[in-house]
Design goal:
Helices cover 77% and strands 0% of the residues. The protein is mainly α. The two termini are 32 Å apart.
């Protein structure tokens, strides 16, 4: 990468735009599968509780594979890891579409979760290495937008494909799209990365290299913010939908509209939040985003008298989570060494997956017991906790190896 290229915003760099092509392709196929997969699982004659095992298998496999995926990136490089992960998910999707029993479907989706962890670790580590930390907020916003666009368009296409070709067809379309994404990644990620030289490490070397990050407040807050983002999304998407149906009297299409508004809230702030995080610092974006996410999540438990507010608070949760994710991406770039760390990226993915897996169960249990107001108040507590922790961040971020703008601020 030349000096002139290094000064360009991420979206004006071909190597970054090509990676967005990979993410859009993956997200579009994943979006096609989301609404059809439960229906396909039900076609095997299982109950609703068993249907949830399909997604649980994917999520658990991804969670337990994140650290190993990060170590694989450090050992074999981002390009090989990204392509291998895409191929694994592709094969698992072909297998899921060809499943002759429910348990074959569960096993195939579980394998896909491991592949997802691998290609996401490779893709994110490459972005961290080709984009300067001072532009990482914008890069994170663009990367997240590409996924949201794909996931938003996918369900409509998935419904058309399933109607015309059967419920297994979206899985085959997704698998084929992943093969296309693997080819794009093979082309887009070839050649040396000039800005930061890659050092291949053994697993123990990679763990030792990443260990100092535990004591860096920027990395610690990035992990916590990632956990909060996915925890909040899982809580409002799952338990919020039950609240809307059972207490607010919404129809299924209104629940779907509210979920769409959640995504609208996310997309609406992404690019602005990225620019502000890069120019004014991560903290100035992260603190308000955590406050908005906490207050809006807690407020969802008190909308029974004013059901229209449900839509407003869903948009606010989306905006808060989205801006917080942009700030977290910038903090990762600030904290991770110049040569990159797949291990550090894998641990960050693990934090997000943990939040996404835990929230529906824990918040759902509280909704069944003390009720929705208590459940959503508890759902807001992690964001409030991380808000307090984020007060320790420096007012202005700085790239690894450079002096802090305000050295009096604690940096870990």
């Amino acid at each position: 990468m030349s000096v002139d290229d290094a000064a360009l915003p991420p979206l004006r760099r071909p190597e970054f735009r090509n990676l967005l092509g990979v993410s859009v392709t993956v997200a579009l196929g994943f979006g096609m599968v989301i609404p059809i997969l439960p229906l396909f699982a039900r076609s095997f004659g299982v109950g609703l509780a068993a249907v949830g095992l399909v997604q649980l298998a994917f999520g658990l496999a991804r969670f337990v594979s994140n650290l190993a995926a990060g170590l694989a990136v450090d050992r074999f490089g981002e390009r090989a890891s990204t392509i291998a992960g895409l191929l694994i998910v592709s094969l698992s999707s072909y297998g899921a579409g060809a499943a002759q029993s429910f348990w074959q479907l569960v096993a195939a989706r579980g394998i896909g979760g491991a592949g997802s962890a691998l290609f996401m670790a490779g893709l994110m580590n490459r972005i961290l290495r080709i984009v300067e930390p001072e532009m990482m907020g914008r890069a994170t916003g663009a990367f997240r937008s590409s996924f949201l666009v794909g996931i938003a368009a996918g369900p409509f296409l998935g419904g058309i494909v399933a109607t015309r070709f059967g419920r297994a067809a979206p899985l085959h379309f997704y698998a084929t799209g992943l093969l296309v994404a693997a080819v794009v990644a093979w082309i887009a990620m070839r050649g040396p990365v000039v800005r930061r030289a890659t050092e291949r490490r053994s697993p123990m070397e990679a763990l030792r290299a990443a260990a100092p990050l535990v004591h860096d407040v920027r990395y610690a807050v990035a992990l916590l913010a990632t956990f909060v983002g996915w925890w909040s999304l899982a809580a409002v998407q799952n338990i919020g939908a039950v609240l809307a149906l059972e207490r607010l009297g919404f129809s299924e299409d209104l629940v779907g509209l509210a979920t769409t508004l959640l995504a609208v809230g996310e997309i609406g702030v992404l690019l602005v939040a990225g620019r502000v995080a890069d120019r004014r610092g991560r903290r100035i974006v992260l603190l308000p985003s955590l406050a908005v996410a906490a207050l809006a999540t807690a407020a969802l438990g008190h909308v029974e008298g004013e059901p229209a507010l449900y839509f407003v608070f869903m948009m606010l949760v989306g905006a808060g989570v989205s801006a917080g994710g942009v700030a977290a991406g910038g903090l990762l770039a600030d904290a991770i060494p110049r040569e990159g760390s797949g291990t550090a990226v894998g641990v960050n993915q693990m934090a997000g997956d943990l939040g996404y897996l835990l929230a529906p169960f824990l918040i759902g249990a509280l909704a069944d017991g003390p009720g929705f107001p208590v459940a959503f108040l508890v759902a807001a507590l992690p964001a409030a906790f991380v808000f307090v922790r984020a007060l320790q961040l420096p007012r202005r971020s700085h790239a690894p190896g450079r002096p802090a703008v305000e050295p009096s601020e604690p940096v870990g």
